[in-house]
Design goal:
The chain starts with a helix and ends in a 10-residue tail after the last helix. The protein folds into 2 domains: about 30-175, no CATH class; about 185-375. The protein is an alpha+beta fold and about 375 residues long. The protein is about 50% helix and about 20% strand.
C-alpha cells in the first residue's frame, strides 16, 4: 500500500506547499447583500468590489475620481438586470438611491437601494442575484437580513440567510422564519443541487462508476459476469466515498478542519485525474478504496464550503449537516441509478475501447485543466460550484 499511496500523498503535499498555511488564503470573491424588512417597507444596500464592478460594467471607477451621474446610471442598470426582489406575483421596482466608497476600504462600493414593495410586506419574498458570477463562476453573493421586524431581528451583520451562486441564483425566504423541518428540507434540496451542479464531484463519481461493471484480468478489463457482483462494486464505491466526505463535512462544520478553498479544489481535481489514470493502468489495485477514501475526505471539505459561509448557530448547523448530507446522497443515488443500468448493458460491447477509455480520457483532460487552473489560481470562469 505504501508504494501505491506514496505518489498520491506526495502529489497532495506538493499542491499544499504552494499555498500559504492560513485557512483564509483564498476564498471565492463575494458581494454582500443587505436587506432591512421594516414596517414601512424594504431597503438595503449591496457591497461590491470596485474591481468586480469595473469588470462587468466596463467602467473605470475609483474613489479618487468619484462617481458621475452617467456611471451611477450604468451601475443601476446593471443591477436592475441582476438583482430582483418580489413575491409570487412578480418583482418589485428597486431604486438605487446612493453610492458610497466603504470607509477604510476604498476598493468596496456601497450601493444603497429602496424597494417599492406593497404594505404590509408579504410574509414570503422571492429574491434572485446573479451579478458578477455570470463572468466569474467563483463569485458568490452573501445575503443578510439586517433587520426583520416580523421576527424581531435587528442589527444582524454576521449570519447570512443564503449564498447566491451559479445554479443558485434564486431563493425563496419566509420572513416569519422557517420551522426546523422547513430548514431541513431546504438544506436537503441544497445538497441535491450542489452535487448536480458540482461538476467536479459528479465527474469523480462517474469516473469510478465507469469501472464498476468490469474487472481487471490478465492486464485487461473484462465484463463482470453477474449483476450482483457489479451492484456490490457500486455499493462499495458509493459507501466509501459517502463515509469519507461525511466525516470531513461534519468536522469542517464543527470548525475542526480549515483549509484554503483553493487547496481543496486543487486536490479534488487531482483526485479525478488519478482515478482516470487508474482506469487506464489499474495501478491502484486493491488499494483503490483507500485512495477513494482519502480523496473523499477532500470532497467533503468541498461540500462544506457552501455551508461554512452561512455562519449558523448550533441547532441550524446540525439541521444543515444532516439535511445537506442527505441531499448529497440523494443526488449521488440519482446519478448512479441513471448510469449503472446503461453501463451494465454496454459492458459486453467492446466496452473498454468504445466507452471506458474515451470517456476517461475526456474527463482526464478536464481534470488536468482544473488542476492547472486551481493550483495557479487562473481565472477562466469555469469552476466546480
Amino acid at each position: 500500500m505504501r508504494s501505491v499511496m506514496m505518489p498520491i500523498l506526495l502529489a497532495v503535499s506538493l499542491i499544499a506547499s504552494i499555498f500559504p498555511l492560513t485557512a483564509d488564503a483564498h476564498q471565492p470573491g463575494m458581494s454582500y447583500l443587505w436587506l432591512q424588512v421594516n414596517e414601512d417597507g424594504l431597503e438595503g444596500r449591496i457591497d461590491m468590489a470596485v474591481a468586480d464592478l469595473n469588470r462587468v460594467t466596463g467602467l473605470n471607477i475609483s474613489e479618487e475620481a468619484g462617481l458621475d451621474a452617467e456611471q451611477r446610471q450604468v451601475i443601476a442598470d446593471y443591477l436592475q438586470a441582476h438583482y430582483s426582489i418580489g413575491d409570487e406575483a412578480g418583482n418589485y421596482p428597486i431604486s438605487y438611491v446612493d453610492y458610497n466608497f466603504f470607509p477604510d476600504f476604498e476598493d468596496i462600493l456601497e450601493i444603497f437601494y429602496v424597494v417599492d414593495a406593497p404594505l404590509p410586506v408579504p410574509d414570503r419574498l422571492e429574491i434572485s442575484y446573479s451579478a458578477v458570477m455570470h463572468e466569474d463562476a467563483a463569485h458568490r453573493g452573501g445575503f443578510h437580513f439586517e433587520n426583520n421586524y416580523k421576527t424581531g431581528l435587528e442589527g444582524n451583520y454576521y449570519k447570512k440567510a443564503h449564498i447566491f451562486g451559479p445554479g443558485r441564483e434564486a431563493a425563496s425566504f419566509n420572513l416569519l422564519g422557517d420551522t426546523w423541518f422547513q430548514q431541513f428540507f431546504n438544506f436537503a434540496r441544497e445538497g441535491v443541487i450542489h452535487i448536480w451542479i458540482g461538476l467536479d464531484h459528479v465527474l469523480f463519481l462517474v469516473t469510478l462508476l465507469l469501472t464498476s461493471v468490469v474487472v481487471r484480468k490478465g492486464g485487461l478489463w473484462q465484463p463482470r459476469e453477474g449483476l450482483r457482483s457489479a451492484i456490490w462494486n457500486v455499493v462499495a464505491v458509493v459507501t466509501v466515498f459517502t463515509v469519507a466526505h461525511s466525516i470531513t463535512l461534519a468536522m469542517a462544520m464543527k470548525g475542526w478542519i480549515e483549509l484554503p478553498s483553493r487547496l481543496i479544489e486543487s486536490v479534488i481535481a487531482l483526485s479525478i485525474l488519478i482515478v482516470v489514470l487508474d482506469n487506464f493502468y489499474s495501478f491502484l489495485g486493491r488499494f483503490k478504496w483507500s485512495a477513494v477514501f482519502v480523496f473523499g475526505l477532500f470532497h467533503g471539505l468541498g461540500f462544506a464550503t457552501v455551508l461554512n459561509l452561512l455562519s449558523l448557530d448550533f441547532q441550524s448547523k446540525l439541521i444543515a449537516l444532516v439535511g445537506f448530507n442527505l441531499g448529497v446522497e440523494v443526488g449521488q443515488l440519482a446519478i448512479v441509478l441513471v448510469m449503472f443500468p446503461l453501463l451494465f448493458v454496454l459492458r459486453n460491447y467492446n466496452y473498454p475501447k468504445l466507452l471506458l477509455r474515451p470517456a476517461s480520457a475526456a474527463i482526464g483532460l478536464v481534470a488536468c485543466w482544473w488542476l492547472v487552473e486551481r493550483t495557479l489560481d487562473l481565472q477562466s470562469g469555469w469552476t466546480s460550484f
